[in-house]
Amino acid sequence: MAGLLDRTALDGMVADRPVRLQHRGGALWILNSAGLAAVAPALDDSLDVERDAAGQPTGRLWRYDVRLRAAIGAEPPDLASVGERLASYGITGVTDATPDLDAAGLGLIATAVHGAACVRRCSCWAPRPGHHSLPACPVGRTRFCCATTTFPVSRSWRA
After folding, report:
1. Which residues contact 56 (CB under 8 A, 6 or more apart)?
2. Average pLDDT for residues 84-103, to the nearest whole number?
3. Is-contact 31 59, C-beta < 8 A?
4. pTM surpassing 0.85?
5. Which end of the chain has fewer CB within 10 Å, C or N?
6. CB 107 within 8 Å of CB 134
């Protein structure tokens, strides 16, 4: 596929059911028309909802994890099966880089590591300064996610 992936491109692949893809960078979700219809009440007027010239959502939602989770509902992932699969590849440690990891998410990870349901070593990037660690899952670096869609670019920064 050439060009940006958006609602129209996803509709051309799957139009009969909601589709939601996450960009590998983690900050962008791309939904097809059925997916947008399913989360329509959660769409706001912020710049996080990319819109076309007619003002309609393109399906590209920036930094929308918390809002999508609230709209869709989500069960916590089965970290035991994830840990088993990682261990089968010889992976014994992971780092979670979730930008908005809350205490419940950190607790889920720490409980899985402590109970040996996940990998042996886990560290988490702190979602904000001052976030507390749990013994089974120490918090290390802080991850800052810049809103690159609205980030001012200085001429002096360009190569």
Report:
1. none
2. 79
3. yes
4. no
5. C
6. yes
The count of residues in the chain is 159
The single residue listed with the structure tokens 């076309």 is 52
Q: Which residues does 88 contact at the CB level (< 8 Å), separation at least 6?
A: none
Distance CA 79, CA 156 (A): 45
Q: Give residues with Cβ within 8 angstroms of 38, minimum separation 6.
A: 18, 71, 72
Alpha helices in 42-96 (DSSP H): 65-72, 79-88
Mean pLDDT of the chain: 78
For residue 74, give the amino acid letter.
A
Cα(96)–Cα(113) distance, integer angstroms: 12
Q: Which residue has the tokens 């069960």?
A: 75
Please list, in sequence order, all residues whose beta carbon lies within 8 angstroms of the beta carbon of residue 72, skipping any fewer than 6 positions away.
Answer: 38, 39
- For the packed helices 103-114 and 79-88, what is the interaxial angle rounded to 10 degrees? 50
Alpha-carbon gap, residue 10 to 34, rounded angstroms: 10
pLDDT of residue 1: 52
| Structural tokens at position 10 | 């996803």
State the amino acid at position 150 in one-letter form.
Answer: T
Say how far apart CA 140 and CA 123 lie, in whole Å. Answer: 7
